[in-house]
Prior knowledge:
- This protein is an alpha+beta fold.
- Helices cover 29% and strands 22% of the residues.
- The strands form five sheets. Strands 3, 6, 8, 9, 10, 11, 13 and 14 form an eight-stranded antiparallel beta sheet that branches.
- Strand 9 and strand 10 form a beta hairpin.
Amino acid sequence: MLTKLFKKGFAAAAVLLTISILYYSVSIFHHIRTVNAMADNSLTWVDFNVTKSAMDRALQLDIESRNTKNPLNWIDLLAYLGAKYGGNFNQYRAKDLNELVKQCKDGVSVKQLAENMKYFDYYKKAYEAVLGGMVGEYLIQLTDKPGGKALQLQTGYGLKAYSPVAEGYGFSHYNDFGSSRSFGFSRPHQGHDIFGRIGTPVVAVESGIVETLGWNQYGGWRIGIRSFDGRRYYYYAHLRKDRPYHGDMQEGVLVQAGDVIGYLGMTGYSNAENVNGMKSPHLHFGMEIVPEGCERESNCEIWIDTYEIIKFLEQHKSTVVLDKETKEYNRKYRFLDLGMLE
Length: 342
């Protein structure tokens, strides 16, 4: 009896040891890739783990200081913290950001304060690649007049990226980036699963051009949108069976952040087209950084962990309304991303 228990205990310990070794091996591998990328200031690897709370505060400081003598740039602030923490935002403390801002308000720039930080330029480059299209100037229709006529577009500045799920539609999620997937071949999950009801309106996170549209055996009905500056590719997969896309969607079409682009479903994981091969309805949301000179779906592609980004974007959801004639959902308030004019 004791022998059997010993064998079971030994087997369990061996399994735990194997898991631990694999976990730390992956962690070390990621660390080496990050260090190598920082060393030559390239974007061959970006381990993005900036927290929602850090992004929230940096954005607030950016907006509040916009018209002051010493305006702050939220990406500069985050890059400084990234260099300070070695990219590990588990170390983030609000007081570190407050101390940085205090010095900036005294007239010292972030660049000057980061002069002796070896990897500041790398983190600035990396975070600009990930977050560069999310904040800026835009025109927006804020509300309706009592008579039902729309107000003219008004200029605004701030967060211009939207949550991928429309306002009024609940969802759940957890950080599943990097977990294993086995359909077709073994690979890490290079996206983020957002679980909701079939038919939930899916909206464009950032403005851009529809680059990919159609069926894929892994992603089912999916749509890919490239940002105007060409640096980010957004991938929305497992859309609804039979009617996955908004009627206006086709390759080459320009979309604004917050536009309805399709509907949540559970297609994919099937060699046959238009099949619900997933176990539960969800949106697979992926964000790929495409470094200058690289092609998408090549060895230099960089998929980003978007878990904290999704939490950050929950503060900005697109209000949608149903057109009873077309059965399509459309955004209620018009929006124009002025970044497309740059």
